[in-house]
Amino acid sequence: MEKWRATSNLRRSLKSILNRQLSSVSEFRYLNEKRSCQSSFNLIRDCKSLGQVNAIQHRCFSSASTLVQRNPSFSTLNSDDISYFKGLLGEKSVIQDEDRLETVNTDWMHKYKGSSKLLLLPRSTEEVAQILRYCNSRCLAVVPQGGNTGLVGGSVPVFDEVIVNVSSMKNIISFDKVSGILVCEAGCILENLISFLDNQGFIMPLDLGAKGSCQIGGNVSTNAGGLRLVRYGSLHENVLGLEAVLANGDVLDMLGTLRKDNTGYDLKHLFIGSEGSLGIVTKVSILTPPKLSSVNIAFLACNDYSSCQKLLMEAKRKLGEILSAFEFLDTEAMNLVLHQFDGVRNPLPASMHNFYILIETTGSDESYNRANNSKEDQRNTNKANDGGRRIKLDGCKLHVLAREQECRSCGWLVRTMRREFGHWILRFHQR
Amino acid sequence: MEKWRATSNLRRSLKSILNRQLSSVSEFRYLNEKRSCQSSFNLIRDCKSLGQVNAIQHRCFSSASTLVQRNPSFSTLNSDDISYFKGLLGEKSVIQDEDRLETVNTDWMHKYKGSSKLLLLPRSTEEVAQILRYCNSRCLAVVPQGGNTGLVGGSVPVFDEVIVNVSSMKNIISFDKVSGILVCEAGCILENLISFLDNQGFIMPLDLGAKGSCQIGGNVSTNAGGLRLVRYGSLHENVLGLEAVLANGDVLDMLGTLRKDNTGYDLKHLFIGSEGSLGIVTKVSILTPPKLSSVNIAFLACNDYSSCQKLLMEAKRKLGEILSAFEFLDTEAMNLVLHQFDGVRNPLPASMHNFYILIETTGSDESYNRANNSKEDQRNTNKANDGGRRIKLDGCKLHVLAREQECRSCGWLVRTMRREFGHWILRFHQR
């Protein structure tokens, strides 16, 4: 019944949003243009600490360079607005302090900078709803913000939007050990959820470098992927339900905990990855897999791209159900890492390889799940016989890293940055 | 770019649909009311061949019994319409023959019966688009139909809707062995896709009893789950892209093949499970997992429900990555099966148990993946030591079936029906 109500609410709201032509005038900024720049920004991020890129960048639609103009139909904040918010949230949750505004006006990479004069910190769905209802009636622009760790500027204002930051909504609502379903508020920091689940014998289906700061609501709104996507799929798979507040303050309760609920339209998927442009996610229910005890990593080099493809096919087939990550680097990316960080070295022989692959396996049986790949080349394609599962490859030149210490110095570096290293349990079969 | 176009197309179409108030006047009937009756229909289905239920039933909203009335604003077919369709599709694809119409007007369980006078068999997306564009302009009601194997009457007309059956669209468009991504037309029969993939060393992420007749477009439109859901997740996870034709004839090209594409709104999810009410799915791209060589099944009985829950938790934890199915039956369901089918017997001791569990494992290593559960009860909770992985349970009474022949006589019966049996490769560790 709740769901049907949600459907009809959304239908009404979509209609009203569409009628107001969301792409030109909207309470939520339409952020897709930023995301289309993501791939080039990643490279810029990698170079940042080399001092190559420091200037605040202007946002643009992909390659076009037209500046976004502030829509004059939006109002500007006045003292009545501030009074209303203080009455609603209390003095402490209405932030006008310049230093704190500086932080939330700037993205993690210091590439974008907004000029918001107001940060609101609601503690409940009802407060979010009332904020949005008020802003809607006053035609005040709003930008939803979580951990503000995004790389494409989606969580900071473009102009003077009111920032609604949900970081005060950080309660774990329930966890069912039988089904592995966690229900929590949107402001929960990913790492806190990971720790909580670890104590229960479960893991989060997503893990990424920003986990110490990013929030689950933001993860859902940006459809964050991370290191475990190859094994556990995207958030479209793992998020079972959502609660979200629409721009007009309507609350959509789609917070189901049934893994296969196909009654009606599955509207929650619209919110996953929509970057807050359809509403602010306030609660999430998520399916979490059990923690498996055995994690292993291997690092390999290939001379050509087709060998990498063959390796992926073989890894999927031979490691099958225990394959939990398959990460790809080319020489350029590898060199960047080697030059960028002290004490990092290529664990493979000095000769230059064109491509590198990091394979991780995770399984429930330690004696068995060894990401143990035999050293093979075109002249020797037989499986080695010293135990463990091996990938057999015809026509590929593989170099195998099988020492923990060596792997620790390079594995996951590119994706998780160094501070995340402790997370990976590296155990290797001695060859 | 294609995706952006699709988004703006859908936005326009949604707007036009919403403006016309889809719930009261729409080219596609709003089928959700039927699905809400699904659980009760399943039981009726089980009893059907006992002759208990034969009458054609009236559709209703859940428990309410209001009859749906034909909306008088829809037109009725005339000879000009028939001429148009014959000109568009050719004589052979415009069916008015009464015998053939009888079949497509009736659902698989012979519970619902429409009175359509016209069956159209388009062979391409363009033909589907032209049909819908024409029907929209003439205000003719349409019902999309695939294999017509649904149990809730979603694929047959309520009144005199034009039936658009996509079974002639059955081409496999591409298959990428590296990524495991299959792209095909919506009319492909599931079993044909399974066979095709089997030859390539892959499997479909979904498998269900109706696979010999059901079509992938219908599977997607109904968000069919089936036997592999616990392992491979729902179609929201596995469907990477869709092509669909909206009611006004617009073609939405969302046929991506990227596993993690989070640019823009992920509109395809709206179509998964929407039962054709938003548009007719014409092409599907789907991620297929590699075929793993070792499949095992165990059949167990539990005395109480909490033991079943504990068993699920232990199965997820101990069998972890190789667990591929966990099916639950209560005594009533078991008795129904035993009485319904000749030659089926309970493989477990004669004493009555309250609950039965069927566990299937699928893995890449035959010597290892044994769904081998030790015979344990409250007095003996130690793991047995004769090899294979075992589930250890405290406080649960388990009876273990470990003989292929015995299992063959009951496994999966309730969900897949007898003709599907050959599919399951049963191999057991001899105890």
From TrEMBL, chains A, B:
One GO cellular component this record assigns the protein to is: mitochondrion
Sorted alphabetically, which keywords does the UniProt record give?
A: FAD, Flavoprotein, Oxidoreductase
Q: Which organism is it from?
A: Gossypium darwinii (Darwin's cotton)
Question: Mind listing the GO molecular function terms for this protein?
Answer: (R)-2-hydroxyglutarate dehydrogenase activity; FAD binding
Which stretches make up the FAD-binding PCMH-type domain?
Answer: 112-291
Its name, as the record gives it, is D-2-hydroxyglutarate dehydrogenase
Cofactor(s) recorded in Swiss-Prot or TrEMBL: FAD
One Pfam family named in its UniProt record: FAD_binding_4
Q: List the InterPro entries hit by this protein, alphabetically.
A: FAD-bd_oxidored_4_C (IPR004113), FAD-bd_PCMH (IPR016166), FAD-bd_PCMH-like_sf (IPR036318), FAD-bd_PCMH_sub1 (IPR016167), FAD-bd_PCMH_sub2 (IPR016169), FAD-linked_Oxase-like_C (IPR016164), FAD-oxidored/transferase_4 (IPR051264), Oxid_FAD_bind_N (IPR006094)
EC number assigned by the record: 1.1.99.39
